[in-house]
Specification:
Strand content of chain B: under 5%
CATH superfamily of chain B: MetI-like
Strand content of chain A: 25-35%
CATH class of the largest domain in chain A: Alpha Beta
Largest interface: A-B, 30 and 21 residues
Shape of chain A: elongated
Oligomer: heterodimer
Radius of gyration of chain A: 25 Å
Number of strands of chain B: 0
CATH architecture of chain B: Orthogonal Bundle
Helix content of chain B: over 70%
Shape of chain B: globular
Order of helices and strands of chain A: HHEEEHEEEHHHEHEHEEHHEEEEEEEEEE
Structural class of chain A: alpha+beta
Number of domains of chain B: 1
Distance between the termini of chain B: 51 Å
Largest sheet of chain B: none
Number of strands of chain A: 20
Largest sheet of chain A: 6 strands, mixed
CATH superfamily of the largest domain in chain A: P-loop containing nucleotide triphosphate hydrolases
Number of helices of chain B: 11
Chain lengths: 389, 261
């Protein structure tokens, strides 16, 4: 709720002032989907720990995590395919725990498309409309329009088996959006597709979602999908919400070791806080090196912390070409291994103190060789501190 | 030609086939033999025994009995088997595994035992032997086959199809009719065929259950054999062979044609 009031006029005022201006304000909408104290057990196994989560209308929220983290269970509870052991789920402010799935008005997209193999594409897309008391002529219009929306006009007479995987998933998308669902639920919709097709399909889902403005919950284990499409990412692990935020925030300000490790390539090392230096926190690494980190918040002297640096934030250069400047952190090392990946190069560098660092550098003119003595530098803004777990 | 291990194996295979099919071929051939006592080489070719068969009222009645019994059995057994298979595959309930094993047990119990058991049971109920008893018995014998076939297919139908239908607004019954049942059709047809053919040529248990008025073809043949070996039986056997082989073939062809749409 606070998200919405922030955007409206006079939101900084006290609640009383808000009341006074109420007639001029748009009514505050409840979140489209709301989890309140949701907990799910399968037998004795805790699949989802007590979770609260709000999903705003029209947003695309990604549940991201490794398999078995509870993201799919969360999705299936919205769908009504699982019943929460504890807590309540609301859609449009209405408690839906006891509403059976076929009365929830949802669109679902599955990993394996789940098109009805014995029905034509037309009958597949029209399936949901049949149960909505819509005249035949209108059903036809809607189906053809939906097929156009997923850029597959003219396939209505074919059978699902005659289409490619990507096409089948687009039909599944058409089948789900044609009923104008309150919420679109997608369970790893891109996982079964080929790598190059996946990117196209991802953009297509993204565009369609924005065009229709349909609230969408997207389950994936692929961080690139999550980062590129989401309005909000919810990172999960072992049934527990780890962090919730916009992609930039989750990527750049990971809340803990797991999030930092799961999204992108990160280097971790433990360190001890030594004090402040200007805007930065000064820490001593376990190798004995001193490092400046940009870490808002209270860090006490002597506190043990973990330093996180993204592999892409490091910069490697030959020792003889390096000249230190200002407040940049730099360390010496030797390239132990590298892997060439086309657009970028991964270096694994043995540091002087015995620690290995993973550096990803975008291809410039030159690739350094194994055995080269290099200096690795990183600006303090790109060094983050996490409390030691 | 050199005699190698492979030609011995080929010879052996041919002998196995001859051993298996020679009696059947003999029955078919002898059914066209004009003589009362069959011997090779045959002394001509005639449909005499087929004509006699068509005029034998007792056989025709038995034939009708068998057809009615087989059809009713296959209908009844699919009507029971489909919901049972749904319950076993799609739902969790206490005692599920034991109940499933129990329903499959008639496959493993000797038919003689089943035959006697059912007779004792209705004696205890103080009911006479009847067509209903026969039907009930055949349902018990064939239910495991239908259950196995339908369950195997149901396991192969991913739940997502049903979940997709539910999410699109179909209630559970509509989902079953629109999605699950059509996808199950090949297994249901196979189950019906199985139960029909098993019921159609069951002898052992049926001997215990049949009365004079509701004899089936195999029981009738068995009875005729006790008096004399009439070549009519050869003709009847040939008809039975053609029926029991061609019905499944036809059904397989039809279901393939239907599924292609």
């Amino acid at each position: 709720m606070s998200e919405i009031t922030k955007n409206t006029e006079g939101s900084s005022a006290a609640p009383a002032a808000e009341d006074a201006s109420a007639p001029h304000m748009p009514p505050v909408k409840p979140p489209m989907v709301q989890f309140k104290g949701i907990l799910k057990k399968f037998g004795k196994v805790l699949a989802v720990e007590k979770t609260d989560l709000d999903i705003e209308e029209g947003s695309l929220v990604t549940l991201l995590g490794p398999s078995g983290c509870g993201k799919t269970t969360l999705l299936r509870m919205v769908a009504g395919l699982e019943t929460p052991t504890e807590g309540d789920i609301f859609i449009k402010g209405k408690r839906i725990n006891d509403v059976p799935i076929h009365q929830r008005n949802l669109g679902m997209i599955f990993q394996n498309y789940a098109l009805f193999p014995h029905k034509s594409i037309y009958d597949n897309v029209a399936f949901g409309l049949k149960y909505r008391k819509i005249p035949k002529e209108e059903i036809r219009e809607k189906v053809l329009r939906a097929l156009e929306m997923v850029r597959l006009p003219g396939v209505e007479k074919r059978m699902p088996g005659q289409l490619s995987g990507g096409q089948q998933q687009r039909i599944a998308l058409a089948r789900a959006i044609v009923i104008e669902p309150d919420v679109l639920l997608m369970d790893e919709p891109l996982s079964a597709l080929d790598e190059n097709l996946r990117e196209d399909m991802r953009r297509e889902i993204d565009n369609l979602q924005q065009m229709l403005g349909v609230t969408t919950i997207f389950v994936t284990h692929d961080q690139r999908e999550a980062l590129s499409m989401s309005d909000k990412i919810v990172v999960m692990k072992n049934g527990k919400k780890q962090q919730e935020g916009v992609p930039e925030e989750v990527y750049n300000r990971p809340a803990n070791h797991f999030v930092a490790d799961f999204l992108g390539h990160s280097n971790f090392t433990s360190a001890v806080v030594q004090g402040r230096e200007g805007n930065f926190v000064k820490v001593e690494l376990e190798t004995g090196n001193i490092l400046l980190a940009d870490a808002p918040g209270d860090w006490k002297e002597g506190e043990e912390v973990e330093v996180v640096v993204r592999a892409q934030r490091f910069e490697a250069m030959l020792q003889e070409e390096f000249s230190p400047d200002g407040q940049t952190n730099y360390f010496e090392g030797k390239i132990r291994d590298r892997s060439y990946m086309g657009g970028e190069v991964s270096y694994f560098i043995d540091m002087a103190g015995g620690k290995e660092v993973h550096v990803i550098s975008m291809m410039r003119s030159r690739i350094y060789g194994i055995g080269n003595d290099v200096v690795v530098q990183v600006a303090p803004e790109h060094c983050h501190l996490l409390p030691l777990e | 030609m050199k005699i190698s291990g492979w030609s011995l194996i080929r010879l052996y295979t041919i002998l196995v086939y001859v051993f298996m099919f020679a009696p059947i071929v003999a029955v078919v051939l002898l059914s066209f033999n004009p003589e009362q006592f069959g011997s090779f080489p045959m002394k001509g070719f005639s449909f005499r025994w087929y004509v006699k068969l068509a005029e034998n009222d007792a056989i025709l009645i038995a034939f009708k009995n068998s057809l009615i019994l087989g059809s009713l059995t296959s209908l009844l057994v699919t009507a029971i088997g489909i919901p049972a298979a749904m319950a076993f595959v799609r739902y969790e309930f206490p005692g599920k595994n034991s109940l499933n094993t129990l329903l499959l047990a008639p496959i493993m119990i000797p038919e003689v035992v089943l035959g006697v058991a059912l007779l004792i049971f209705i004696r205890w109920l103080q009911q006479p032997k009847s067509f209903l008893l026969l039907l009930f018995g055949h349902v018990v014998i064939t239910l495991p086959y239908v259950l196995l076939v339908v369950q195997a297919r149901l396991v192969g139908i991913r739940r997502e199809y049903e979940e997709a239908a539910l999410s699109l607004g179909a209630n559970p019954f509509q989902t079953f009719m629109e999605v699950t049942l059509p996808l199950l059709t090949p297994a249901i047809l196979a189950g019906m065929l199985f139960s029909f053919t098993i019921s159609f040529d069951d002898v052992t248990a049926t001997l215990f259950w049949a009365t004079a008025t509701n004899q089936t073809v195999p029981v009738k043949i068995f009875g005729m054999l006790r008096n004399s070996i009439s070549p009519e039986i050869n003709a009847l056997g040939t008809v039975m062979i053609i029926l029991t082989v061609s019905i499944p073939l036809l059904a397989g062809y039809l279901s393939r044609k239907l599924s292609k749409g």
